[in-house]
Amino acid sequence: MHAEQERGVWSGEAANSVPFHPAEFAEAPASITVMIAFAHKAMALAWRSGLENEFDIEIKGEAVADATRLLTCLKQHHPQVLLLDRALLDRLDAVSLRWMHCNPHVRVLLVVEHACHHAVTGVLRHRFHGLLPATSPPAIRLKAVHAVSRGELWLSRWLMAKVISDPSWPLGLACADESVVPASPNAMATLTRRELQVVARLRRGCSNKEIARELGVMEDTVKKHLKSVFAKLGVRRRAQVILKSSLSSRSSPVEGACPRQ
Length: 261
Prior knowledge:
Blueprint: H1 4-7, E1 32-37, H2 41-51, E2 57-59, H3 67-77, E3 81-85, H4 86-89, H5 94-102, E4 107-112, H6 117-125, E5 130-133, H7 138-149, H8 157-165, H9 169-176, H10 185-189, H11 193-203, H12 208-215, H13 219-233, H14 238-248
Parallel strand pairs: 1-2, 1-3, 3-4, 4-5
Helix pairs in contact: 6-8, 6-9, 11-13, 12-13
């Protein structure tokens, strides 16, 4: 089930990390446009030099180190992937963050010094598309850029499980972002048994292929179930399904959270 050594995200406790596969199923384009926004110029230079020689990566503009210029640069270049470090994120104003929320075609990969479950909470709160330690080797950086450009959510399974196991984590998100609200009991009740089984496996961090294998169905069938779940819960991303089902399960456990078949 786990081909982590081939698809691993980073070393250490999160070594068995794999990208999630959300609603967007389109193939990645031949050339991926990337913009770098790091408060630390030396790190920005190192990441740029490691990516710009890749045949399918196009770096747009100069690295942005000034938070007040980021929105202007985003509107000018419209990159497919924005590499944003935590230091610059902390300096962004509400207008810049709102623009990113309203323009999900610009996929944000947050780069942090320390990958912890608080960093995962930040990714979910801001509706970013992934989390990557600053110390990640060049090959992993490239894999992460490719993954988020395809619409995948690049997160550590270990960290995601740690976040979900913390009873307070959804409450912090709900307080920080009023648009993140629990799915109503009626909404969860509209899910079929099979859809609930898919949701339970999402919360374990399973990919579409792994869900299909566990449930004994085709991967396309899993995608259809996911589209139905998204529509019923009023969300667009797998992370939002995980969040809403976690909030809902405080009062009524999600069906299908059982031992693997």
